[in-house]
Amino acid sequence: MSEKKYEEGVDPITFFREQCALEKKAINLKEILETCNERVRANPDSGESCHMEMTDYVHFLDHCAMPKAFKHLK
């Protein structure tokens, strides 16, 4: 992964979440979420939700991005 440089004036959390989304684990979690979303769209009456898959994905992004963002706080 080529590391982009953080720029002043850009929201650091968004910047680092975008960087973390390129990591292999994030890509795998996003694929799991997208597969779940496809199942729910195909059968909306199933009662299934993708809450846990979304939670796992967002938790990973936050856990990855927060330490990097805190290093840039002034």
Automatic annotation (TrEMBL):
Gene Ontology process terms (BP): mitochondrial electron transport, ubiquinol to cytochrome c
Keyword Membrane belongs to the record: yes
Domain Ubiquinol-cytochrome C reductase hinge residues, every copy: 11-74
Record's signal peptide: none
Disulphide linkage map: 20-64, 36-50
InterPro entries: Cyt_b-c1_6, Ubol_cytC_Rdtase_hinge_dom, Ubol_cytC_Rdtase_hinge_dom_sf
Keyword Membrane on entry: yes
Keywords: Disulfide bond, Electron transport, Membrane, Mitochondrion, Mitochondrion inner membrane, Respiratory chain, Transport
GO CC terms: mitochondrial inner membrane
Location(s) in or outside the cell: Mitochondrion inner membrane
Membrane topology: Peripheral membrane protein
Similarity comment text for this entry: Belongs to the UQCRH/QCR6 family.
Function: Component of the ubiquinol-cytochrome c oxidoreductase, a multisubunit transmembrane complex that is part of the mitochondrial electron transport chain which drives oxidative phosphorylation.
Protein name as catalogued: Cytochrome b-c1 complex subunit 6
